[in-house]
Amino acid sequence: MSRLSNYLFLGAILTTIVLPSAAQASDVDTLKLVYSEQYQPRLYDAKIEAIKAATVSAQTSGRIMNIHFDVNDLVPQGAALLEITNKEQGAGLAGAEAELAKAEALNTEAQAQYIRYKALFPKGAISKGAMDEATAKAKSSKQAISAAQAQLVKAKEGLNYTVVSAPFSGRMTQRFVEQGETISYGQALFSGYDTEHLRVVFQIPQQDVAQVQQQDQVTIQLLNGDEITSNDIQVYQFADPLTHQHQVRVNLDVSNMQDVIVGQWTKVIVNFPSRTSLTIPLSAIHQVSDLTSVYRKNAGEIVLNQVRIGRIDRQHNTAEVLSGLLEGDEIVIDAGRYLIMSSAAKGQE
Protein backbone atom coordinates (compact mmCIF):
# COMPACT_ATOMS: atom_id res chain seq x y z
CA MET A 1 0.00 0.00 0.00
CA SER A 2 1.40 3.39 -0.95
CA ARG A 3 1.89 6.16 1.58
CA LEU A 4 -0.72 8.31 -0.20
CA SER A 5 -3.38 5.64 0.17
CA ASN A 6 -2.43 5.33 3.82
CA TYR A 7 -3.25 9.00 4.28
CA LEU A 8 -6.75 8.60 2.84
CA PHE A 9 -9.04 8.46 5.87
CA LEU A 10 -12.14 10.33 7.09
CA GLY A 11 -12.85 11.34 3.51
CA ALA A 12 -9.86 13.68 3.32
CA ILE A 13 -6.46 13.41 1.62
CA LEU A 14 -3.74 14.11 4.16
CA THR A 15 -0.55 15.64 2.88
CA THR A 16 2.89 15.92 4.36
CA ILE A 17 4.38 19.33 4.91
CA VAL A 18 8.11 19.77 4.41
CA LEU A 19 9.53 22.05 7.07
CA PRO A 20 12.45 24.44 6.64
CA SER A 21 15.73 22.77 7.42
CA ALA A 22 16.51 25.13 10.28
CA ALA A 23 17.05 22.17 12.58
CA GLN A 24 18.89 19.36 10.87
CA ALA A 25 17.40 15.88 11.08
CA SER A 26 20.67 14.59 12.49
CA ASP A 27 20.38 16.92 15.49
CA VAL A 28 17.22 15.31 16.96
CA ASP A 29 16.47 11.95 18.56
CA THR A 30 14.29 9.75 16.42
CA LEU A 31 12.46 6.47 16.78
CA LYS A 32 12.05 3.81 14.08
CA LEU A 33 8.55 2.32 14.15
CA VAL A 34 7.93 -1.42 14.28
CA TYR A 35 4.77 -3.41 14.80
CA SER A 36 4.13 -4.79 18.29
CA GLU A 37 1.47 -6.87 19.98
CA GLN A 38 -1.15 -4.65 21.61
CA TYR A 39 -4.38 -5.43 23.39
CA GLN A 40 -7.51 -4.36 21.57
CA PRO A 41 -9.57 -2.61 24.24
CA ARG A 42 -13.31 -2.35 23.83
CA LEU A 43 -15.21 0.44 25.56
CA TYR A 44 -18.74 0.11 26.92
CA ASP A 45 -20.97 2.83 28.30
CA ALA A 46 -21.83 1.99 31.90
CA LYS A 47 -23.78 3.57 34.72
CA ILE A 48 -22.76 3.69 38.37
CA GLU A 49 -25.35 2.42 40.83
CA ALA A 50 -25.52 1.48 44.49
CA ILE A 51 -25.38 -2.14 45.55
CA LYS A 52 -27.20 -1.41 48.78
CA ALA A 53 -30.13 1.00 48.67
CA ALA A 54 -33.28 1.14 50.79
CA THR A 55 -36.44 3.06 51.60
CA VAL A 56 -37.10 3.45 55.32
CA SER A 57 -40.78 3.17 56.28
CA ALA A 58 -42.67 3.91 59.49
CA GLN A 59 -43.11 0.98 61.89
CA THR A 60 -45.59 2.82 64.09
CA SER A 61 -48.02 5.73 63.81
CA GLY A 62 -47.79 9.23 65.23
CA ARG A 63 -46.97 12.86 64.46
CA ILE A 64 -43.48 13.89 63.38
CA MET A 65 -41.82 16.12 65.97
CA ASN A 66 -38.28 16.51 64.54
CA ILE A 67 -36.47 15.74 61.28
CA HIS A 68 -32.69 15.65 61.62
CA PHE A 69 -31.50 15.02 58.03
CA ASP A 70 -32.44 16.14 54.54
CA VAL A 71 -31.81 15.13 50.94
CA ASN A 72 -28.10 14.84 49.95
CA ASP A 73 -26.93 14.55 53.57
CA LEU A 74 -24.40 11.90 54.54
CA VAL A 75 -25.94 9.87 57.36
CA PRO A 76 -23.94 7.60 59.72
CA GLN A 77 -25.32 4.20 60.58
CA GLY A 78 -27.73 4.26 63.54
CA ALA A 79 -28.23 8.04 63.42
CA ALA A 80 -31.74 9.27 64.28
CA LEU A 81 -33.46 10.42 61.09
CA LEU A 82 -36.68 11.69 62.69
CA GLU A 83 -38.69 11.51 65.93
CA ILE A 84 -42.39 10.72 66.31
CA THR A 85 -44.69 11.51 69.27
CA ASN A 86 -44.41 8.68 71.78
CA LYS A 87 -47.14 9.23 74.41
CA GLU A 88 -49.22 6.30 73.20
CA GLN A 89 -46.22 4.01 72.93
CA GLY A 90 -44.95 5.16 76.34
CA ALA A 91 -48.32 4.35 77.91
CA GLY A 92 -48.22 0.92 76.27
CA LEU A 93 -44.77 0.31 77.76
CA ALA A 94 -45.94 1.31 81.25
CA GLY A 95 -48.92 -1.03 80.94
CA ALA A 96 -46.70 -3.91 79.81
CA GLU A 97 -44.36 -3.37 82.77
CA ALA A 98 -47.35 -3.39 85.17
CA GLU A 99 -48.67 -6.61 83.63
CA LEU A 100 -45.26 -8.25 84.04
CA ALA A 101 -45.09 -7.22 87.70
CA LYS A 102 -48.60 -8.59 88.28
CA ALA A 103 -47.73 -11.89 86.56
CA GLU A 104 -44.57 -12.25 88.65
CA ALA A 105 -46.51 -11.65 91.88
CA LEU A 106 -49.17 -14.24 90.98
CA ASN A 107 -46.46 -16.69 89.97
CA THR A 108 -44.70 -16.26 93.31
CA GLU A 109 -47.92 -17.05 95.15
CA ALA A 110 -48.73 -20.02 92.88
CA GLN A 111 -45.24 -21.52 93.20
CA ALA A 112 -45.32 -21.19 97.00
CA GLN A 113 -48.74 -22.86 97.19
CA TYR A 114 -47.56 -25.67 94.92
CA ILE A 115 -44.53 -26.33 97.15
CA ARG A 116 -46.74 -26.46 100.28
CA TYR A 117 -49.29 -28.79 98.67
CA LYS A 118 -46.52 -31.01 97.32
CA ALA A 119 -45.20 -31.50 100.87
CA LEU A 120 -48.66 -32.18 102.38
CA PHE A 121 -50.05 -34.41 99.61
CA PRO A 122 -48.11 -37.58 100.59
CA LYS A 123 -49.46 -37.21 104.15
CA GLY A 124 -53.06 -37.24 102.93
CA ALA A 125 -53.74 -33.67 104.07
CA ILE A 126 -54.40 -32.48 100.50
CA SER A 127 -56.85 -34.08 98.08
CA LYS A 128 -55.82 -35.22 94.63
CA GLY A 129 -58.04 -32.52 93.04
CA ALA A 130 -56.49 -29.74 95.09
CA MET A 131 -53.01 -30.97 94.20
CA ASP A 132 -53.83 -31.03 90.49
CA GLU A 133 -55.28 -27.52 90.70
CA ALA A 134 -52.15 -26.19 92.42
CA THR A 135 -49.93 -27.85 89.84
CA ALA A 136 -51.91 -26.37 86.94
CA LYS A 137 -51.95 -22.94 88.57
CA ALA A 138 -48.15 -23.03 89.06
CA LYS A 139 -47.56 -23.92 85.41
CA SER A 140 -50.03 -21.35 84.03
CA SER A 141 -48.66 -18.56 86.21
CA LYS A 142 -45.15 -19.34 84.96
CA GLN A 143 -46.34 -19.13 81.36
CA ALA A 144 -48.14 -15.89 82.18
CA ILE A 145 -44.74 -14.37 83.01
CA SER A 146 -43.39 -15.40 79.58
CA ALA A 147 -46.43 -13.82 77.90
CA ALA A 148 -46.02 -10.62 79.91
CA GLN A 149 -42.31 -10.47 79.04
CA ALA A 150 -43.15 -10.83 75.35
CA GLN A 151 -45.65 -7.97 75.60
CA LEU A 152 -43.01 -5.86 77.33
CA VAL A 153 -40.52 -6.50 74.49
CA LYS A 154 -43.21 -5.55 71.97
CA ALA A 155 -44.00 -2.35 73.88
CA LYS A 156 -40.31 -1.42 74.07
CA GLU A 157 -39.93 -1.96 70.32
CA GLY A 158 -43.01 0.15 69.71
CA LEU A 159 -41.41 2.96 71.72
CA ASN A 160 -38.12 2.53 69.87
CA TYR A 161 -39.98 2.83 66.57
CA THR A 162 -40.82 6.44 67.44
CA VAL A 163 -37.17 7.25 66.67
CA VAL A 164 -36.41 6.21 63.09
CA SER A 165 -32.72 5.31 62.68
CA ALA A 166 -30.52 4.86 59.61
CA PRO A 167 -30.06 1.14 58.80
CA PHE A 168 -26.61 1.80 57.28
CA SER A 169 -24.22 4.65 56.55
CA GLY A 170 -24.92 6.42 53.27
CA ARG A 171 -26.38 9.37 51.43
CA MET A 172 -30.03 10.37 51.57
CA THR A 173 -31.69 10.71 48.17
CA GLN A 174 -35.37 11.34 49.01
CA ARG A 175 -37.52 12.58 51.89
CA PHE A 176 -41.23 11.83 51.66
CA VAL A 177 -42.54 13.58 54.81
CA GLU A 178 -42.45 16.96 56.51
CA GLN A 179 -42.28 17.97 60.17
CA GLY A 180 -45.71 18.07 61.78
CA GLU A 181 -47.27 15.43 59.51
CA THR A 182 -49.10 12.47 60.98
CA ILE A 183 -47.76 9.21 59.59
CA SER A 184 -49.14 5.68 59.67
CA TYR A 185 -47.62 2.22 59.78
CA GLY A 186 -45.80 1.31 56.55
CA GLN A 187 -45.61 4.87 55.17
CA ALA A 188 -42.37 5.66 53.28
CA LEU A 189 -40.14 8.19 55.06
CA PHE A 190 -36.65 8.32 53.50
CA SER A 191 -34.64 6.73 50.68
CA GLY A 192 -30.87 6.43 50.48
CA TYR A 193 -27.94 4.31 49.42
CA ASP A 194 -24.67 3.04 50.85
CA THR A 195 -21.79 5.11 49.43
CA GLU A 196 -19.18 2.45 50.22
CA HIS A 197 -20.62 -0.35 48.06
CA LEU A 198 -21.09 0.64 44.41
CA ARG A 199 -21.03 -1.10 41.04
CA VAL A 200 -21.20 -0.30 37.34
CA VAL A 201 -23.83 -1.85 35.10
CA PHE A 202 -23.58 -2.12 31.31
CA GLN A 203 -24.83 -4.17 28.36
CA ILE A 204 -22.78 -6.30 25.98
CA PRO A 205 -23.80 -7.98 22.69
CA GLN A 206 -24.09 -11.73 22.45
CA GLN A 207 -20.79 -12.14 20.58
CA ASP A 208 -18.84 -10.51 23.45
CA VAL A 209 -20.24 -12.66 26.28
CA ALA A 210 -17.64 -15.44 26.11
CA GLN A 211 -14.72 -13.00 26.01
CA VAL A 212 -16.00 -10.92 28.93
CA GLN A 213 -16.57 -14.06 30.99
CA GLN A 214 -12.90 -14.95 30.54
CA GLN A 215 -11.65 -11.61 31.83
CA ASP A 216 -9.68 -11.60 35.08
CA GLN A 217 -10.33 -7.89 35.53
CA VAL A 218 -11.75 -4.86 33.77
CA THR A 219 -10.98 -1.15 34.02
CA ILE A 220 -13.53 1.53 34.86
CA GLN A 221 -12.64 4.98 33.54
CA LEU A 222 -14.23 7.85 35.46
CA LEU A 223 -15.12 11.24 34.01
CA ASN A 224 -12.17 12.93 35.76
CA GLY A 225 -9.73 10.51 34.10
CA ASP A 226 -9.17 8.27 37.13
CA GLU A 227 -9.29 4.54 36.56
CA ILE A 228 -10.46 1.73 38.84
CA THR A 229 -9.70 -1.94 38.23
CA SER A 230 -12.03 -4.66 39.47
CA ASN A 231 -12.06 -8.43 39.28
CA ASP A 232 -15.58 -8.85 40.66
CA ILE A 233 -17.38 -9.37 37.33
CA GLN A 234 -20.86 -10.86 37.00
CA VAL A 235 -22.21 -11.61 33.52
CA TYR A 236 -25.91 -12.45 33.33
CA GLN A 237 -26.56 -15.89 31.88
CA PHE A 238 -29.69 -14.70 30.07
CA ALA A 239 -30.29 -12.02 27.45
CA ASP A 240 -32.75 -9.16 27.46
CA PRO A 241 -35.75 -10.27 25.36
CA LEU A 242 -35.95 -6.88 23.61
CA THR A 243 -32.31 -5.93 22.98
CA HIS A 244 -30.85 -9.49 23.06
CA GLN A 245 -27.95 -8.12 25.09
CA HIS A 246 -26.50 -9.44 28.32
CA GLN A 247 -26.17 -7.28 31.41
CA VAL A 248 -22.86 -7.14 33.26
CA ARG A 249 -22.29 -5.97 36.82
CA VAL A 250 -18.85 -4.99 38.09
CA ASN A 251 -18.54 -4.31 41.81
CA LEU A 252 -16.19 -1.49 42.78
CA ASP A 253 -13.89 -0.81 45.70
CA VAL A 254 -14.38 2.93 46.27
CA SER A 255 -13.07 3.13 49.83
CA ASN A 256 -10.31 5.55 48.74
CA MET A 257 -12.21 7.31 45.94
CA GLN A 258 -14.08 10.59 46.29
CA ASP A 259 -15.39 11.22 42.77
CA VAL A 260 -17.53 8.11 42.24
CA ILE A 261 -21.13 9.33 42.12
CA VAL A 262 -24.21 7.16 41.80
CA GLY A 263 -26.13 7.76 38.56
CA GLN A 264 -23.16 9.01 36.54
CA TRP A 265 -22.16 7.53 33.20
CA THR A 266 -18.70 6.06 32.88
CA LYS A 267 -16.64 3.86 30.57
CA VAL A 268 -15.71 0.22 31.08
CA ILE A 269 -12.59 -0.96 29.25
CA VAL A 270 -12.34 -4.67 28.42
CA ASN A 271 -9.13 -5.98 26.84
CA PHE A 272 -9.84 -8.30 23.92
CA PRO A 273 -7.23 -10.54 22.23
CA SER A 274 -4.08 -8.73 21.14
CA ARG A 275 -3.34 -7.42 17.64
CA THR A 276 -0.30 -5.99 15.91
CA SER A 277 -0.20 -2.22 15.68
CA LEU A 278 2.13 0.77 15.66
CA THR A 279 2.56 2.74 18.86
CA ILE A 280 4.34 6.04 19.36
CA PRO A 281 5.30 7.98 22.51
CA LEU A 282 2.93 10.77 23.50
CA SER A 283 5.86 13.21 23.42
CA ALA A 284 6.09 12.69 19.64
CA ILE A 285 2.57 13.99 19.01
CA HIS A 286 2.13 17.57 17.86
CA GLN A 287 -1.44 18.75 18.48
CA VAL A 288 -2.73 22.03 17.06
CA SER A 289 -6.50 22.46 17.20
CA ASP A 290 -7.93 19.49 15.26
CA LEU A 291 -4.62 18.67 13.61
CA THR A 292 -2.77 15.71 15.10
CA SER A 293 0.64 15.11 13.59
CA VAL A 294 4.19 13.93 14.16
CA TYR A 295 7.57 14.99 12.74
CA ARG A 296 8.83 12.29 10.39
CA LYS A 297 12.30 11.95 8.98
CA ASN A 298 12.24 11.77 5.20
CA ALA A 299 15.42 11.70 3.08
CA GLY A 300 17.42 13.77 5.54
CA GLU A 301 14.61 16.29 6.10
CA ILE A 302 11.94 16.60 8.79
CA VAL A 303 8.36 16.70 7.52
CA LEU A 304 5.11 17.33 9.38
CA ASN A 305 3.08 14.15 9.03
CA GLN A 306 -0.61 14.05 9.97
CA VAL A 307 -1.73 10.92 11.83
CA ARG A 308 -4.88 9.43 13.23
CA ILE A 309 -4.53 8.34 16.84
CA GLY A 310 -6.45 5.50 18.49
CA ARG A 311 -6.20 4.28 22.09
CA ILE A 312 -3.96 6.25 24.44
CA ASP A 313 -2.14 4.32 27.15
CA ARG A 314 -1.55 6.78 29.98
CA GLN A 315 0.29 4.21 32.03
CA HIS A 316 3.05 3.79 29.44
CA ASN A 317 2.63 7.24 27.80
CA THR A 318 2.06 5.77 24.36
CA ALA A 319 -0.62 6.08 21.69
CA GLU A 320 -1.78 3.69 18.99
CA VAL A 321 -1.49 4.91 15.38
CA LEU A 322 -4.51 4.00 13.27
CA SER A 323 -3.28 5.59 10.04
CA GLY A 324 -0.71 8.04 8.72
CA LEU A 325 2.46 6.05 9.44
CA LEU A 326 4.03 2.80 8.23
CA GLU A 327 6.39 0.31 9.78
CA GLY A 328 9.96 1.51 9.28
CA ASP A 329 9.08 5.21 9.45
CA GLU A 330 11.39 7.27 11.63
CA ILE A 331 9.80 9.97 13.77
CA VAL A 332 11.06 12.63 16.17
CA ILE A 333 10.63 11.43 19.75
CA ASP A 334 10.17 14.86 21.36
CA ALA A 335 8.08 17.16 19.14
CA GLY A 336 8.16 20.03 21.62
CA ARG A 337 11.94 20.02 21.85
CA TYR A 338 12.22 19.88 18.07
CA LEU A 339 10.01 22.98 17.72
CA ILE A 340 12.19 24.89 20.19
CA MET A 341 15.33 23.87 18.32
CA SER A 342 13.78 24.90 14.98
CA SER A 343 12.74 28.31 16.33
CA ALA A 344 16.19 28.91 17.78
CA ALA A 345 17.87 27.91 14.50
CA LYS A 346 15.63 30.27 12.52
CA GLY A 347 16.51 33.13 14.84
CA GLN A 348 20.21 32.64 14.16
CA GLU A 349 19.83 32.73 10.39
Short note summarizing the structure:
The protein is built from 5 helices and 25 strands. With 349 residues, it is α+β, with helices and mostly antiparallel strands. Residues 1-22 have low confidence and may be disordered.
Task: Write up what this structure looks like.
The chain is built from five helices and 25 strands. With 349 residues, the chain is of the alpha+beta class. Strands 5, 14, 15, 16, 17, 18, 19, 23 and 24 form a nine-stranded antiparallel β-sheet that branches. Strands 3, 4, 20, 21, 22 and 25 form a six-stranded antiparallel β-sheet that branches. A four-stranded antiparallel β-sheet has the order 6-13-11-8, with no helix packed on it.
H and E string: HEEEEEEEEEHHEEEEEHEEEEEEEEEEEH
**Treating each run of at least 4 consecutive H or I residues as one helix, how many helices?**
5
The largest sheet is:
9 strands, antiparallel
Mean of residue pLDDT values: 85
Provide the descriptors you would attach to this structure in a database record.
single chain; 349 residues; alpha+beta; nine-stranded antiparallel β-sheet; six-stranded antiparallel β-sheet; 40% strand; elongated
